[in-house]
Amino acid sequence: MSRIAATFEKLRAQKRPALIPFVTAGDPAPEHMPAILKALVAGGADVIELGVPFSDPMADGPAIQRSSERALKHNVGLRDVLAMVAAFRKSNDATPCVLMGYANPIERMGLATFVTEARRAGVDGVLIVDYPPEESGPWLDALKGSGIDPIFLLSPTSTDASIDRVARVAGGYVYYVSLKGVTGATNIDTKDVEAMVRRIRVKTALPVGVGFGIRDAATAQRVAACADAVVIGSRIVQEIFEAPPVEIGARVEKLVREFRTALDAKVGVAA
Predict the structure, then answer these.
(1) What is the CATH number of domain 3-266?
(2) What are the tens digits of pLDDT across the range 128-144?
(3) Which residues have C-beta within 8 Å of that of residue 133, sequence separation ≥ 6?
(4) How many C-beta atoms lie closer than 10 Å to residue 45's C-beta?
(5) What does pTM read for this prediction?
(6) Is 49 a catalytic residue?
(7) Which of 60, 124, 228, 264 is catalytic?
């Protein structure tokens, strides 16, 4: 059983939603990543989404765009991100790590080479924003037998046909984008989220994670009432940007713990 599947199985038995924080690899500088990843786990992360820096992150809002720019100033590339995962695995063999990014860096490396290197590093899943399922044949073929889950996005505008396509090919979990627009946007409507999560669950038994627009504990609680996982990205990235370098780890851990405590309180889990 994969790390992702095992994590969701354990949480399902505990009737707890997964907390999935997102950070950009190499932000604000590569030397901070060991402390940030450690802080995410200490704060209560169940799965970590690690963003691969890219020069044209079309799905990301200003906070994550700027985090990519900061990482790219340090020349952080895909191989560096894989090295960060490999270093993380030396002290943590349990927490799933999902890479999230865009097709260009992976295609430049080569699909087969990337899959081999990602597996060696300890990557558990990959979400490529600009690989829709109907155009992902070579990508899915490259992943076969690797143990790496292909994770796909669905959105408020996804049709039943789109949901069907994702349900046929996705692994790990389905990532539902809770609103139209880019990361960091606001005005999430949890009633709409609940209705869409129900539609997705009709088509797949995979866990459904919800992200975009979740910036505080109260919103996270509401989303957790209907979703299997809550993804927090821009809020953590902003915290990293605002923190003095010596306080980054402590502040990330504190923020993640606030979200973890809120989610557990929603389902009646003692702190």
Answers:
(1) 3.20.20.70
(2) 999 999 999 999 999 99
(3) 152, 162, 165, 166, 168, 169, 170
(4) 27
(5) 0.94
(6) yes
(7) 60
